[in-house]
Structure prediction request, 154 residues.
Amino acid sequence: MTQPVAETMVDPSAEAIRIGQLEIRYLQEGADATMSCFELRVPPGANVPPPHSHADHEELVYVLDGTLRYTVGGVTRDLRPGDVMGTPRGVAHAFSNPHAVAARALVTNSPGIDPQYFRDVAAIANAGGPPDRVRLAAVMQRYGLTPVAPGTPA
Prediction:
C-alpha cells in the first residue's frame, strides 16, 4: 500500500485559489521568477481545465497523495505518490481524477506562471452556471496557454 508523501507541503495560511472543486496553493510565486511551484488538489470527478499547451513554460507534476491521471502528448499515465511526469514547452497535456479519493500534487512551471492567472480563471469559472469558454480561452491565451481544439488528443 502506498503511503502519503507528506501531510502538507504548503503553509496552511497560504492563499487558497479555488476553481470549482480544484484548489491551488503556491509555494513559490512566479510572474517574474525562473519557476513557480504550487500544490494542486483534485477531488474525484472534479471539473478540470481543457487540454492545453504552454508555448513558454515547461511543467513538472509530482504526485503526493491519491492518483492523478495525467496525459502528455497522447501518453496517459495514472500517477501515484512519488510518480512524476513532465511536459515540454508546446506539448498538449491534461489531467483528471477519475479515482475514488482526492489527488494532491506539486506542480512546477519554468518559467513561473503568475498566480493571477488562476485568480482570473476562478473569477470566470466560479461565476455560476456553465463557464464562458470564450472568456476562459482568452484568459488562457493572455498568460501563454493555448487550449487544444475539442476532439484533438492531449
